[in-house]
Protein 1
Amino acid sequence: MSSKDNSISIDPASEQMLESAASQELELAWDRYQAMLPQCGYGQLGLCCKICVMGPCRIDPFGQGPQKGICGATADIIAARNLARMIAGGAAAHSDHGRDVAHTLLTAASDPNCDYKVIDEKKIRALAEEFGIATEGKSKEELAKAVAEMSFAEFGQQHGELKFAQRAPDDQKKRWREHRVMPRGIDREIVEIMHRTHMGVDNDPKNIILQGIRAALADGWGGSMIATELSDVLFGRPNPLKSMVNLGVMKADEVNILVHGHEPTLSEMLVAASQDPEMIKLAESKGAKGITLAGICCTANEILMRHGIAIAGNFLQQELALSTGAVDAMIVDVQCVMPALGELAKCFHTKLISTSPKAKFPFAEHIEFDESKALDIAKQIIITAIENFPKRKGKNVCIPDIRENMVAGFTAESVFEFLGGRYRPSYRPLNEGIITGRLRGAAAIVGCNNPKIKHDYGHVTMTKELLANDVLVVTTGCTAIADAKAGLLDPGEALQYCGKGLQEICRAVGIPPVLHLGSCVDISRILVVLCNVVSQGGLGASIADLPAAGAAPEWMSEKAVAIGFYVVASGVYTVLGQPLPVQGAEGLTKFLCQDIEDIFGGKFAFESDPVEAAHMMLDHIDRKRSELKLAPVLYPVPYAPKEVAEAAVAV
Ligand code: NFS
Ligand code: SF4
């Protein structure tokens, strides 16, 4: 795709950098995507197996060639095994992140010299009570130690049920127990996928997917929820705050440091180190006016939520950020970090610094992070960046002068306080809004960028379509960043896109129509919001009853697959902008897009057009409204439901 092609991104800052990168002949993900075309059809349809070396085997989707692998595996078996392994990869990534946070909490609680502290006493007390720990007379450190140890145990637990899964409404728990997908231990469910999908073990596609669901639930209601909850204890619960987003948050005359990846442990310390007066003095001594720290991807969302640190961009902007030539150091930890970055950084003075023993990269300098010396190492990293700043001098630097205001920092608790007012926290106004038809429903839009889809187009177009139809939107991850860049997290600017009912709610309550709930592990916050809405009453007894839907319009990662499955298995209708790689497997596709709804109340749909996808979500929301016998929506809205549209055509 030539960067002259206007259709690569809807974000003007990214467009500008695409032009600039093209003129410097820099290679980006979009170029590599073009070079990859045509992509393998067998892979896209889920019909390629290389689980054993009798293969690789592939199934002919046209029915002419082989219909079975050498072992006899059919299309459905092959696609189900591949998909379950994707879930295992995604659940492992989120959960290993959660485990690391538990480890940091344990260190913070045990070592008085640790740079991390147990910050949120109220939350650690509540969690300890939830875990059945006697709290009376215990210090927050003692409680944190116990909660950290019990969280560790959730990973290795061999039988029983995960603790946070108990938060789910009874209906969800009943379905999970009945179909034997209630997760036992987080690691156990992931290992069991690997066992079952080994050659010659589980060869029933549905049975394979059910184990995939068990691991996915262990992610959403286990590993991810542990990551979110314990991060809140360590770093503080987010509260609504203002910040800025897009490449233009970098400054030509300051040391620009970008953090990229996922775990908040490192980025939290970099925030502290970058604000240290000594560091700022050092930067000034090198001729810089100060230090700008900004983030890419989900670690950006973590420090945005808690400190209001600006965001430089989402997944597909990681290379564009480097292409500005203005980055003195990009510090990466784990997940969603392109291995292409090191080579690109070499075109500039930029230092790429890897920090996790789990994730090393070509051409990166490795400064290993160790939480027992967290602040010292963070300072060492900041010093490395500062010392690199003078090397930028005289080089071509191009920072797009484009940035947007945003409000972020919502949680299941702060939404609650906002909606009900500080003195009478309650989800009542939200439920009432839906019951009376002022709000049509709620939607969660999450997930990545993908060069197969015009950058940010899926997220922003879908969000606007839902807002126009009086649907309150919650968001996380790279969607949140896309929406923020488009002004949708700026309450003033976003209201113009909202239907009348949504406008009234937002004005009365003082919330933006798109609520940023954090990073991808914080989708666990969305699960808690759904539980709270159900328990508030008036909208059914199950998450599956709610006039709500989910979507990932530009997803690309295995983590997104794990999320999709735990959300669907929690009762949410979920539309994916790219199909899961199952479409060559007819039986499996029917199971995921149809039959699974009878079991869990949620199902998948695939639709690449974000407007059409939004309409499918609206149809679902309307169906749920009528099942609940709710009043018709209060204000006539621009979208005509499918039946009406079809009838109009027929006439
Ligand atoms: Ni989620 Fe976050 Fe972005 Fe996708 Fe990657 S950053 S964990 S996986 S690309 S939303
Ligand atoms: Fe082929 Fe079966 Fe081996 Fe897969 S497991 S590579 S289908 S023989």
Protein 2
Amino acid sequence: MIHTIADIATEFEIRPGQVYTVLNDLGLDHDGTSFEGDNDTLEMVKESCLENMDSKVITLKPNCTPRDVANALGVPQAEIQKSLISKFKIMKAIANPLTEDEAGRIVTSYGFELALAEGPKPKPKVDPRAAIKVGGAVKRPPVVTIMGHVDHGKTSLLDYIRKANVAAKEAGGITQHIGAYQVMLDEGLITFLDTPGHAAFTNMRARGAQVTDIAILVVAADDGIMPQTQEAIQHIQAANVPMIVAVNKCDKPGANPDRVLQQLTEYNVIPEAYGGQTITANVSALTGEGVPELLELIILQADIMDLKADPRGELKGTVVEAKLEKGRGPVATLLIEEGTLKSGDNLVVGQTFGRIKAMTDFRGEKMNEAGPSAPVEILGLSEVPAAGDKIEFFADERTARVEAESRISKARAKEFTNGGRGMTLRDLRSRMQDDGIKNLNLIIKADVHGSVEAVKGMLEKVKNDEVETKIILSGVGQITKADIDLAAASDSIVVGFNARADGEAKKEAEKRKVEIRTYSIIYELIEDIEAAVKGMLAPKFEEQELGEAEIRMRLQFSKKGIVAGSYITEGKITRNAKVRIYRGKELVHEGEVATLKHFKDDVREMTMGQECGITFNNWEDFQEGDRVEAYEMVQINA
Ligand code: GDP
């Protein structure tokens, strides 16, 4: 039976292109106007349309023409051609293919998002291993990340553990850094992620990939808690991951482990010795003293957590490290979380795909299978994936390719529609509508612990029916680059209360378009967030440069006072402009234009290369050679 797409679009008051998206997602082919299927298929399409009515995605085939776009949007073909010319200066015959960029622009100008997809996407095939699931969950090794301040001994500790427990046991075995390794103890296995520092931990968590089960916080006993130690504590606490503190460098003469334990209490980390819950161990990464005890504590903690996974379950895993290697192509280290990965499997990894050509463990030994918590290095992906990308099993390479390509075009369309922008308070509303965002993610930094708690407590209550605030991280101290990284990856806004952003953080925020808002009055902070959630943020103004002029003459007129005979050197000057006057580098006046004249006539604006007479409100002390900088204040959250 043939069904008409236009009928369905009319029934649900959506555009035909939105129906294409549904058809494509269901794996049904169409010719732009109709599709074939029985009554059940029609019902399924209608149900999907109902569910996806709010989605603004229009799916077209690559190389689509203005005619295809017109059909998809349900507008006359001539209108699309006219729009292409008037809005984008693009001249195209009705049946000539548009580039992806051109198609994206025209679709976006109608308020939709373009996804390009090669025909219908076949339904991802289920991993047959999931179907023969018999085993159920079994105990799995813990995944451990080591964090702490620079030079406190993270790398040394990881190296010591590896040497003492891996290399010695594997006679002649050469260990290589693939981003993770495992140690075998009498009590069990432990997987260590060996990219120390919290950047990797944070980036992964922000992308929704939490692979760490236990975090080891390394604190040097001679140095005590330092800024990055604090930051690590914040990140670990925010992620709700159990922490074991390794007080390192205990061999050093100046070491004072007790002072470290006491310092920890100031950061809400209460060691067992102080009646709290946090396990600590005094170690030396240099002599190895205390390290076996630390490993035992990790196993003990893992036992308490009762970590389990099903080796026969559906395959799940995450990229922990990936790079392009000369002669080998894209190389990725995966950590398997559930199920078993096999050499020869077809995977989609983030936006890339491939068939596993070779699979090795951290010793460089070839392996054919990897189960839960095992790190493996794989070859065979078509591109380098990103750390934190999830892996997905596909029955054949072609299906995997189609899925990866569809993800790429969706990601591109998204990037195009929001220009790759980070989240800002003022576009919260539109992003909610366009991207279905339901949370306002916040990162809170404040001067003291008390204010962090106060701000957090008040913000947690800010919500309405549609949007809820979600605190991704909160902590004491300045706003740092790590906060911006987390914000960029998690679409968060950074809120500082009596806390400012350091230089590096400011630069990074500008680059990655992350909004930083700083306050010193708690009610202003709460009011702004409340207003944003309600979509009623008070008008906010931003300076917009207009142009520059040079004053060339002082012209004395009896009635009108002194006029600055000027020459516009850049942009324009308007009658309502605000101005700053510079003499050399010195700012000599800030005020407004009073009158703007071209010969005798009052004019609204004058542009570059023109001469004009300017008077300023309540100011006449200008000189020849002064530079006028004109600007206006424009509302940025209209
Ligand atoms: P990371 O920046 O945290 O990875 O720190 P490193 O592992 O690079 O260590 C920094 C410096 O501290 C190096 O010179 C190490 O040799 C030294 N170091 C690390 N652990 C210990 C230790 O337990 N005792 C002593 N005496 N020195 C250590």
